[in-house]
Write a structure and sequence with these properties.
The chain is about 65% helix and about 0% strand. With about 350 residues, the protein is mainly alpha-helical. This is PP6R2 phosphatase.
């Protein structure tokens, strides 16, 4: 005797889709919606890619949810919306990356006055970052048409998600010719100079810290990519600018203005240490960072004076920019700036 077993089980999502009046929120309440999306459930993808559904999903990740609901579930739907939009399903990527009206809704998130909601900013950055990697040409073309894009990103650089967005533009664009175009565009927008200008006394401390970290990451990423792509004919314009004597001198001028602050000095020194070596300096107290910097410079100066060929990526322009300010660092160790917090700022 044989029994027939129906091993196919209908998901709760499919059952909901059988309803004529099913709503997006009803589907998002189902625990398996993301799993079904990634499994490319055709009916679900057709539903989600409707114009109104896509607009609702993008709006969820870019607008503050109501404040009159329980904080534990306040960001439930924005979080699910972000996971759906970044599920790396071609159907959704094509719809989002190919519809300029949806990209406009996304972009308007940047046009808000600071501070941005950090959680929504992370959703925004993750979504744009996914599109930069998957729908590169469409998204880069859209962003390049926005004259104020870089200004808006830097306006919100106190939010770490904006750092991630900049680094995705630098590291996630393929093929190589398009990546070079993006680097040239960012250089034309004077990205490096504007980040350096944020490292100065009087600027918001979080902005200074994030600008410093962004510069350090750009240096490391650019050097790594230059090493991997040695046959590339065009140099990396961002790396060329950040390693230039002019940039180093401007950073040091910002650091050693009369009203110099501990925060500015430490963040500036972090960039200088990264320029002098590719290894991360690690977590060190503020004055220890400066001492380590001085030892590093002294060693490099000795090598140069002895005529040794350098095999590492420290350009002479960096040393030329630093050398006139060594006396300022030495004076700083003798008369450190007043500490405004209980403990020294650490990197």
């Amino acid at each position: 005797m044989f029994w027939k077993f129906d091993l196919h089980t209908t998901s709760h999502v499919d059952k909901l889709l059988d309803k004529e009046d099913v709503t997006l929120r009803e589907l998002m309440d189902e625990d398996d919606i993301l799993q079904e999306c990634k499994a490319q459930n055709r009916r679900l993808l057709l539903f989600l890619s409707q114009d109104q559904c896509m607009e609702d999903l993008v709006t969820l990740i870019t607008q503050e949810p109501p404040t009159d609901i329980d904080e534990k579930i306040r960001f439930k739907y924005p979080n699910i919306a972000c996971e759906l939009l970044t599920s790396d399903v071609n159907h959704i990527n094509d719809k989002l990356g190919g519809d300029e009206s949806l990209l406009e809704i996304l972009y308007r998130f940047l046009e808000q006055e600071p501070p941005l909601n950090p959680l929504l900013a992370s959703f925004f950055s993750k979504t744009i970052g996914n599109l930069i990697a998957r729908k590169t040409e469409q998204v880069i073309s859209f962003l390049r048409k926005k004259d104020g894009f870089i200004s808006l990103v830097l306006k919100h650089i106190d939010t770490s998600a904006m750092m991630d967005l900049l680094l995705r533009l630098i590291s996630c664009v393929e093929p190589a010719p398009l990546r070079q175009e993006v680097l040239n565009w960012l250089n034309e927008e004077k990205l490096i100079q504007r980040l350096v200008d944020l490292i100065r006394t009087g600027e918001d401390e979080e902005k200074q810290s994030n600008a410093s970290q962004t510069l350090c990451d750009i240096i490391r990423l650019s050097r790594d990519q230059a090493t991997q792509m040695q046959d590339t004919t065009e140099p990396d314009p961002l790396l060329t600018v950040v390693e230039s004597q002019d940039t180093v001198e401007q950073l040091l001028k910002n650091m050693f203005k009369e009203d110099k602050s501990e925060n500015c000095l430490v963040n500036g020194t972090q960039v200088l240490l990264t320029l002098l070596e590719t290894r991360r300096p690690g977590n060190s107290p503020a004055l220890s960072v400066i001492i380590a910097f001085l030892y590093r410079v002294e060693g490099l100066m000795d090598l140069c004076s002895q005529g040794y060929e350098r095999s590492y990526t420290v350009n002479n322009s960096i040393l030329l920019g630093i050398e006139p300010h060594l006396k300022d660092f030495q004076q700083l160790l003798l008369n450190p700036p007043k500490v405004t917090r209980v403990s020294l700022f650490t990197l």
